Amino acid sequence: MNTGALQMPRNELQQTVRQLARLVEISVTLNSTLDPTQLLNFIIQTAAEVLDCETTSILLFDEKRGELIFAASSGSDPEKLAQIPVPLDASIAGTIFCENRPMVISDVAKDPRHFSQVGEQLQFRPQSLVGVPMRIQDRVTGVLEALNKREGNFNDADAKILSIIASQAAVAIQNARLVQALKTANDELSRADKMKNDFMAIASHELRTPLGVILGYASFLQEDAQGELSEHATVVLNSALKMRTLIEDMTNMTMLQMGSSKLALTPMPIQPIIQSVCGEVAATAEAKNQQLSMHLPVKELYVNADREKLERVLMNLLNNAIRFTPDGGQITVSARGLRGETWLEVKDTGIGIPSGELENIFRDFYQVEDHMTRHHGGLGLGLAIARGITQLHGGRIWAESEGKDKGSTFKIVLPPCNKPI
Ligand code: ADP
């Protein structure tokens, strides 16, 4: 049993208990403060208070400059101090840092390692000093120093207390810096995301007017011209129509992201919606010799839907199924009621989706194939729009696939809806 503490005089024992209690409080605050400036200030203020001294400083190692830099200091001019780098090879702090050990000095001015520039520039006379390395595991990251004890000199007990504060402070500073770096990265991402959304909104708006003119004149030409000229007009018209779909996708995505996409929900049977979308894509599937079939219940299955928007979702899924399924493949659309919900499925026998990509494909602009080498075309917005609209309907959508060349199935579940009376 360690009886050392019991043999201490009563007043010393009381002071040790007070210091220990203060160290616990400090530890709690250190672990819960994430603002770097606030944290550094807290460390120096509390170290000065616990050691009852004139000033304390944190010097952190600057890897690029190979010097110690004052990160915070109590009692002195911190901004001025930050401008005075402290050399590793000609300073007490540098010695503590390089030798990775605490130092207690009773007359700093007489020490040959003393770096006098700091005291001279700040008109501060250092007398006694205790300094300890700040470590994270085995790596020394800086030095915590206390100067000029108010009564008497610093001793080994002071060095021990300062070491406890320093070891916790080093980790807390690193955590705060990591959180700060994450916040900065996050802010940059948000800025980039906003720029992307602004660009989409402006581009889709500005492209719509000239495209309208192209579409108008191309259809006049197609109607009036004859022979080869009419064929050329048809090519222009078809290309312009494709472009209109891309622009509509950009507009839909922008509206979904800004939260300005509103639905006009009405109870309606799902069967006619599926039949109409399948009718629209039938020719494209036929051109690829694909078999497009529907499995629909005879009894009307009601959903609460915005017809135009829900058609867009199914159209995006079907267009993908056709594009990502080789000639001669099969595409099946089915619907069924399950526990009051409506389950829709678009299944193909195409190229399939790797398991690691099943969620990613719902992110905007995401495409499994590299965009430089891909040969399927598209903007990568179809599924993001499909998910956005499905969620606005209170539903959910996901993809399933056994892997490469094993086909894909997209499933949508829409909430219960009763047939109106
Ligand atoms: P786009 O089709 O314009 O690239 P989407 O958001 O509709 O954009 O789809 C994103 C990606 O998901 C596609 O590029 C493709 O890699 C993958 N994908 C979508 N549907 C299928 C499918 N039926 N089979 C295989 N891959 C698919």
How would you characterize this protein structure?
- By secondary structure, this protein is α+β, with helices and mostly antiparallel strands.
- It folds into three domains: 3-183, Beta-Lactamase (2-Layer Sandwich); 191-258; 266-414, Heat Shock Protein 90 (2-Layer Sandwich).
- Helix content is 49%, strand content 19%.
- It is built from ten helices and twelve strands.
- Helix 1 runs antiparallel to helix 2 (36-51) and helix 2 packs antiparallel against helix 6.
- The radius of gyration is 36 Å and the shape is elongated.
- It starts with 9 loop residues before the first helix and ends in a 7-residue tail after the last strand.
- Bound molecules: adenosine-5'-diphosphate (ADP).
- The site of adenosine-5'-diphosphate (ADP) has 21 residues, from helix 9 and helix 10.
Number of domains: 3
Rough shape? Answer: elongated
Number of strands: 12
Measured by DSSP, the beta-strand proportion falls in: 15-25%
Number of helices: 10
- Name the CATH superfamily assignment of the largest domain: GAF domain
- Return Rg in Å: 36 Å
Uncertain regions spanning at least 5 consecutive residues: none
How are helices and strands ordered from N to C? HHEEHHEHEEHHEHEEHEEHEE
Helix residue percentage: 40-55%
> Bound small molecules, which ones?
adenosine-5'-diphosphate
Distance between the termini: 85 Å
- Give the second-level CATH assignment, the architecture of the largest domain: 2-Layer Sandwich
Q: Averaging pLDDT over every residue, what do you get?
A: 91
The CATH class of the largest domain: Alpha Beta
Which secondary-structure class do the elements indicate? alpha+beta
Note the main sheet.
Answer: 5 strands, antiparallel
Side by side, the strands of the main sheet go 2-1-5-4-3
CATH topology of the largest domain: Beta-Lactamase
